[in-house]
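Exercise 3.2. Students should predict the tertiary structure of the chain below and write it as structure tokens, then compare their answer with the key that follows.

Predict this chain's 3D structure.
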Amino acid sequence: SFPDIAARVQKVLDDPRASPARVAAVVASEAALAARVLRLANSAFLNPSSEQVNDLRVALTRLGVQLVRCTAVSFALQQMKLGSGDADLRKELQELWRGGALVASIAYVLARESRAANPDEALMTGLMHNIGKLYITVSAAKAEAAAVSEWHPQIAVLILKHWKFPPAIIAAVGNQNLVSRQRHGDEGLTDILKAATALQPCVFDRTLLPDVVAGIPAFQQLKLNAEDCTRILAASAEQIRSLRAGLSD
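Answer key:
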């Protein structure tokens, strides 16, 4: 039951005949969504030159189809959060969403540095990785933490399939809790997501890095050690902050 604007954005993005002007018109019909697209396009993350973009069509081109789709989903989820009259529920949803935005930001820089996956796909994978938790939180008055942890990836898979996200993103989100699996050489995106999720607390406390990196096999698959992760987080701190703000505020 996402807001109508999300469905309309999905429909126009799936239409191969839709012109950039048509996509822009649909996005512009919801002022808050258009503002978010412009804010993302002008963020330090996507616009290092700081040359201001005010044309929505230019902004949409800069984001690309999949990030526009992701932005529409994020906007819809936040509208669901804002529509809740339960203050505790709204707070829980906000924490889940901001956590997803942080994981997305870390995943982007890890993919860019390790070259194990496409950075844009890593960004969307991170942002959508806990959509199952968001769904459970909205739909169920109470749910045991163990049940949420076990089932949220598969619920997320169903949601992402409905929204026609790329198969690689769906697979990574679905496999995020698997400790081990038979490898076929195409698990880079899953490793990126696992590593980004593990690094989430390290953004605020770098002393956790050595134990976190040593305890997660995904870092070995990505050929990243604690020193590499320290350097990546330090060098990308402003980009992570900018992207997280653009995605979650």
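Discussion points: The mean pLDDT is 85. The CA atoms of residues 117 and 189 lie 5 Å apart.
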